[in-house]
Every structure is written in structure tokens, then in C-alpha cells.
Amino acid sequence: MARCQQIKNQRIDSIVTTSTQYTVAALGEFGLISRITARVAPHESVITGIGDDAAVTAHTPGMRLLTSTDMLLENVHFRRAWHDPYTLGRKSLAVSISDIAAMGGIPRWALLSVAMPSDLPLDFIDDFMRGFLECASENRVTLIGGDTCSSRSGVTISVTIMGEQFPDRIVRRSGAQPDDDIWVSGTLGDAALGLRLLENGESVPEALLSRILNPTPRVTVALALAEAGLATAMIDVSDGIRADFGHIAEISGVGGTLLIADLPLSDMFRSQTAHLPAIPCHYALSGGEDYEICFTAHRSNRGKIVGCAKKCGIAVTRIGIVTKFSGVSVLNRDGSQFTALTEGFNHFI
Ligand code: ADP
Ligand code: MG
């Protein structure tokens, strides 16, 4: 090792041990990159990881590469006052992994670009990376590179994720057929309800808070459905089920009917809204950030789908039917068309 590199490393080590007093500026761009690199576990698929001009990876023969990228901007997608850096690190990767899952892909490699103010405490980036890399290891994703810059206004995070899958197992948004069932994993509306409580300054139960701050990408169930060839179309629910199923419908050239009575709501969601004249289905239908998986499937596969999800430890619920005619309609329990007025969410805010 060159003498100057040794000196540089010693400096980094001394900064590492007393990080609380330091800002990212004290460590500098290359110090930060070294600090990140030291925490990345190697993986057999990564031939050259962080540290060269480009990463070199070995893909699985016969599989296609799936790539997706997402940005998270301070005060647009997160607030530093609400999101602690550890869960923000987890979420930054989790939402990207969710996109690979929604294609039936196996998440593999990630690139992380961060812009941050130079007075950002080093602890922030340390905790952020701890969360990011924990989520990576839970999902067998390896960080293979990125970019580090200073910013004059807030923290910006950009994550590019890559995954793989055999061509015939990839599930697109475009495959929904009339009369298919519409399914969704988990429960809907928890994150949106939690966010509303947070914005109103009310106390937010942990079960709702964790759905906003620390979403779990539904990789296992999405992958199992794709590998079993059970889903005709799939999408992850980030903008609310009505809008996200709407994307499937539009691109598949079909429509759909969603049934309010069948939307899966968590016990916490029900108890938090029990005092209201009607359950505020607005959150479950149009609230964002559920990060559940919505998919369509032939009705002959109902039993197999339930069995497949059960093995993955997550419930899936049938919430509607794909129709020949375009447009997504939402029906109340009595069969009438759902409108915001009938659900009473206005009373809630
Ligand atoms: P270049 O000048 O070619 O852009 P950099 O000096 O920015 O290279 O980056 C050096 C190496 O560190 C590259 O391998 C890059 O992918 C990696 N890298 C930079 N920032 C990050 C980061 N925030 N997370 C992970 N890897 C990073
Ligand atoms: Mg660079």
C-alpha cells in the first residue's frame, strides 16, 4: 500500500471511531466511499464491485436483466424529522426491490447515488448505510457502485436496482385477461392512514408507522407466483390500488371492478377508524406507499394461489374481477358505485 494511502486510511480510521463529532465534509467524498465499501459483503456474482470505473457482474445464463431506478428527495419523499436515517436507508432500497419483485424478478445488484449537504452529520450516513445494507443482505442484493456528491439543498438519494429472471417467468403489467381475478397481497391503506395521523400531529401506532417508514417488499410471494406461472399481470402498489390496478388495466387493454367490501384492511386500520361513520376506504383505495403486490390470475388457479401465498407466509385476497370494457369501477357492498361521499372519509380529516 502506498504511504499516502496508509496515511489516508489512518485518518479515516480515527474519524470512524469518533464519528459523532464529524460531518460528511470532514471525511470527504473518497473517505465516504471507503467507509461504504468496507461494509459491503462480497458476492460470487460480483467480479469487480465498488472501486473501479464500472462494476463487473456475472449474470445467470439464460436469464434476462431487469433494471429499475428511483429517486427519494428530502421534503418530497421523506422528511428528516420523521424518517430516522436507519429506516430511510432500508426504505430507499426496499422500494426499488419492490419494483423487481413486481416483475417476478430476483433482485441482485444495486447502485446508490447520494447527494448531501456538507454539514450532514456522519452518523446520518452511517445509520443510513446500516439500514440500506441490512435490507440488501435480507434480500440477497449486493451494492456494486454509485455516486457521492455534495448538495446545497437537502439529501437526495437515487437507487438503481438490477434483477434477473428467465424470460418466460417475467410478469408484465400487460397480461391481464377479461374474467381474471384481481388479487392483492397483505393489507391496504395502513401507510396512508398513518401518514395522515402523522400530518395531523396525532399519535401513530407502531403498526401503521412501520408501514410508512419501513415497508417490506413482497419479493418471496411475487417470485413464487411468477415461478409457478400463476400471475397473468403484476404491479407493486405504490400509488394506491385503484391507480395501480388502473395501470394494469390500461396497458392490458381491459378494465376492472374492485369491490370495497373485499379490500383487505388490517386490524389496526379497523380499530383506528372504528369511531367513524364509515370505514375510510379512500386510504385503502387511493392512499400511497402500500408496497403490496397486485396481480391478476385465471380463476381456475384460486386454490393454487392461496396455497402458494400461504407457503410464503403472506395472505392474498381477491378484490375484484377484470372486465372486457375499459375503466376501473369501484362497487360498494350493495352493488352501487362507490364515490368519496359514500365512504365518509371527509369526516375523518
Ligand atoms: P467516477 O469518478 O468514475 O464517477 P467515483 O470516484 O465517483 O468514480 O466512484 C468511485 C467508486 O466508488 C465507483 O466504483 C463508484 O461506483 C463507487 N461509489 C461512489 N459513490 C458510491 C456510493 N454512494 N455507494 C456505493 N458506491 C459508490
Ligand atoms: Mg462519481
Structure summarized in a few sentences:
Helices cover 37% and strands 23% of the residues.
Structure description:
The chain has 12 helices and 12 strands. The chain has 349 residues and is of the alpha+beta class. The strands form 3 sheets. The protein has a 6-stranded mixed sheet, sandwiched between helices. Strands 3-6-4-5 form a 4-stranded mixed sheet, with helices on one face. Adenosine-5'-diphosphate is lined by residues 33, 36, 50-53, 112, 114, 143, 145-148.
Give descriptors for this structure:
2 domains; 23% strand; alpha+beta; 60s Ribosomal Protein L30, Chain: A; disordered C terminus; binds adenosine-5'-diphosphate; four-stranded mixed beta sheet
What is the typical, i.e. mean, pLDDT? 91
- Overall, the morphology is globular
Main sheet properties: 6 strands, mixed
Spans of 5+ residues with little confidence (pLDDT < 50)? 1-19, 342-349
Helix-strand makeup class: alpha+beta
Give the name of the CATH superfamily of the largest domain: PurM-like C-terminal domain
CATH class (first level) name of the largest domain: Alpha Beta
**CATH topology annotation of the largest domain:** Phosphoribosyl-aminoimidazole Synthetase, Chain A, domain 2
What's the helix and strand layout?
Elements lengths: L2 H15 L6 H14 L8 E3 L7 E2 L6 E10 L11 H17 L4 E11 L5 H17 L3 E9 L5 E10 L15 E5 L4 H10 L6 H8 L5 H9 L5 E5 L3 H12 L2 E5 L7 H7 L7 H6 L5 E6 L4 H10 L4 E8 L3 E5 L8 H4 L6
Parallel strand pairs: 4-5, 9-12
Antiparallel strand pairs: 1-2, 3-6, 4-6, 7-10, 7-11, 8-10, 9-11
Helix pairs in contact: 1-2, 3-4, 3-7, 5-6
Bound molecules: adenosine-5'-diphosphate and magnesium ion.
